[in-house]
Structures are given as structure tokens and as C-alpha cells.
């Protein structure tokens, strides 16, 4: 898919971090940008910077997602590109002892379900609705109607202590990548997933420098935190390269996460 001003894109979680870097990278190629996020101030500012449009969207709420697609499509047209970066995590052991009372307690199921709803169901909801819209488009010269990039995590394959919900949600994204690519293959819509390692995102921005350096030192090479622009570069290649389909790719400097 040639990236130019004839193409529209929607990036979920696009107001900061990996999503913002991807929005900027696509905009540099002339692509028209739509941003879904809950961070209204950051999203509006970035959309203004890029000449795009922002929609405040909660990916766990179907009406919110529908309204977001409607708003963005009215402004920049039906998207051919969807990049799913919206997501979150938590760290809770499956079962443990209360530090104060010593009594056993388990991972609250509502907190487990919330992570699944945001990271997995929210991703699928946006894929399904975006793909349905892409079906209304004529194929490009290369046969593409659209390209979708999802964000998993290395935790999908080597989750750490306390990451049961997060790892399950990201493993679900990995697990549905190939079936969805097969579902949409006859329509010329490609689907791929990136598994980022430890990246320099807002999640780590407030961490002490010693902590950031220690995390980067765990990476075999290069021994540093990943740069969101590196994620954006791979996302753009997955979109551009017409033979890139049904793949899940780690982007992690060869790290394999230890238990903690």
C-alpha cells in the first residue's frame, strides 16, 4: 500500500506513546490521520498538529466506538489503515497472602475482566468495525483494501509474575491475528501484530532514571528502552509491504522476560 494523501488512517490510543509516534510517521507520508483516545487534551493537540481529527473513544463501549468511527470518517473519509495501540495493564498475583493479615486473597475477577475488555475485546471491536468499513472501498492497484496493525506485547509469550490478565489479553491478540487475516484475505485486508518489548512510553516516563536504566540494561542489544519511533517504523512497513500478512513480530532487542 502506497502511503500518501489518498489514504486515511485511524490510530487507537493515538494521543501518546506508540500510537502518537505512529500517527506522526503516517502523517509524514501524507496520510490523513484520525485519533481515538480517552486523553482529550493530548488527542486534540496532536490532531491539530497533524491536521487530523480526534475522537474521544472508550474501546470497551460499543456506542463510543461507533461514534468515533462516524466522526472521523465524516472528516477524513473511510480509513484504509487501522493501528490498534489502545491498551493498559496491571500487576496482581493470581492468589497471594495479604501482607498485613496473612489471609489468602485472589485476583479480583472484575479487574481481570477489565484488562481483557480493553486489550482484547476492545481491539477486536475496532478491527471488526474498521474492516466492515474497508469492505465498502474499491481495492487499490496492489489489491489492498486495507491494512490493520495490532499491538500485543512480549508478555504474550513470556509474561512476568502478576501479569496473568495482561499476558492473557495480549496472547489473545496474538491468537486472533492469523484467523482474522484469513477471514479478511479474500477482501484484500491484511492483518499483523507487533509485540513490543520495554519501550520508552508515558508508562515509564515518571519512573526514576535509575529504574529506566536498569530496565534498558536487561535488553541484550541495543541495551536501552525501545523508541516509539521504532515501533512506528515497523507498523508503517507492515502497512506498506503487501506480502506482510498474518504475522506476529517481536520488537524487543532480543529480550526474554525473566519471571520478575
From TrEMBL:
* Gene3D superfamilies membership: NAD(P)-binding Rossmann-like Domain
Q: Does the keyword Phosphoprotein apply?
A: no
Q: Which UniProt keywords apply?
A: Oxidoreductase
Give the InterPro entries listed for this entry.
Answer: NAD(P)-bd_dom_sf, Sc_DH/Rdtase_CS, SDR_fam
What SUPFAM superfamilies does the database record attribute to this sequence? NAD(P)-binding Rossmann-fold domains
Keyword Oxidoreductase listed? The answer is yes
Report the transmembrane regions from the record.
none
- GO: which molecular function terms? oxidoreductase activity
Q: Name one Pfam family in it.
A: adh_short
**Family from the record:** Belongs to the short-chain dehydrogenases/reductases (SDR) family.
Q: What is this protein called?
A: Short-chain dehydrogenase/reductase SDR
